[in-house]
Specification:
- The complex is a heterodimer.
- Chain A is globular, with a radius of gyration of 16 Å.
- By secondary structure, chain A is an alpha+beta fold.
- Chain A has five helices and five strands; from the N terminus they run βααββαααββ.
- Chain B is about 35% helix and about 40% strand.
- In chain B, helix 1 packs parallel to helix 2.
- The chains are: A alpha+beta, B alpha/beta.
């Protein structure tokens, strides 16, 4: 089985898009309940990724503001999100967080370390806590790449069928 | 004494408990874009009102919070700790996200003598 929720925004999206995508994704997951997928984990990941894209994304040179898709194939869930990048440093920050996640032996320890950083240095910054949360709490794998001024993020997880 | 915050789908209520404890009850969903804008001043004002009472910070009725909500919660914990308050933070242990989030927050509170995080029914 393969199915998908797909949404795009060609105008700079407002915060209401997060709720709209969450609602559509929840309905889609509800219709695929037999697949044993934790909708709670998936919706958290969807919301964190879309929130980041809406907060920090800009219109790219090809007109893209935000492209989102959620797909299920068997017990694998995959979420793809693309947004225009304002400054290249944002990509390096995201890539650094993704690298830290993928090279970590313990995602829980990584997340706890990030919380301790926030405790000791609470000054507002783009800390991408959501990415660490996706990896630890959601148990999703994450990858990112840059294509011109487009940032692509992919998150995926293979669920077992015991839930 | 009672104070309430309503913002979007989030409700936070501060009130007196059945004994000498004070309650800070979180309900609904915290999913606004910049929750620090309204949570930081509200929570700072609550910490000022705690006095010598024990505070029970109850998240069990909170359905969801985005990661932008976590820094204001950490900031509140820090202020409570620096002020020497006695606090019990309660989460719902049968909730996957609450269990993961608050278990990780023990990284912050593990060395605090007067602040505990407890998973309950």
């Amino acid at each position: 089985m393969s199915a998908m929720v797909s949404m795009s925004a060609s105008m700079p999206p407002t915060w209401s898009l997060v709720k709209e995508i969450r609602k559509n994704s929840s309905e889609y997951l509800e219709s695929n309940r037999e697949s044993g997928i934790s909708s709670e984990a998936v919706i958290m990941v969807v919301c964190e990724l879309v929130e980041n894209a809406v907060k920090y994304g800009v219109r790219a040179s090809d007109g893209t503001c935000l492209d989102f898709s959620l797909s299920i194939s068997g017990s694998q869930v995959e979420i793809n999100i693309t947004n225009g990048l304002g400054v290249l440093d944002d990509y390096y920050s995201v890539a650094s967080a993704v690298d830290a996640i993928n090279s970590s032996d313990s995602r829980e320890q990584l997340y706890r370390s990030r919380l301790l950083q926030i405790y000791h240095s609470p000054v507002s910054e783009k800390g991408y806590l959501g990415l660490y949360r996706i990896a630890y709490e959601g148990e999703f794998d994450i990858a990112c790449h840059l294509d011109g001024d487009l940032l692509h993020l992919r998150a995926w997880r293979e669920f077992d069928n015991e839930e | 004494m009672k104070s309430e915050l309503y913002e979007g789908s989030l409700r936070v209520v501060f009130e007196e408990g059945s004994d000498s404890s004070l309650l800070l009850i979180w309900q609904g969903r915290s999913e606004e874009r910049d929750p620090a804008d309204f949570l930081n001043p509200f929570l700072s004002s609550i910490v000022e009102k705690v006095g010598n009472n024990r505070l029970i910070c109850d998240f069990r009725a909170l359905e969801y919070m985005n990661s932008s909500t976590i820094p204001p919660v950490i900031r509140m914990i820090k202020k409570l700790h620096l002020d020497g308050k006695t606090v019990k933070i309660v989460f719902r242990r049968d909730s996957l996200w609450q269990n993961a989030t608050f278990r990780a927050m023990r990284a912050i509170t593990d060395t605090m003598q007067t602040i505990e995080i407890s998973g309950e029914e």
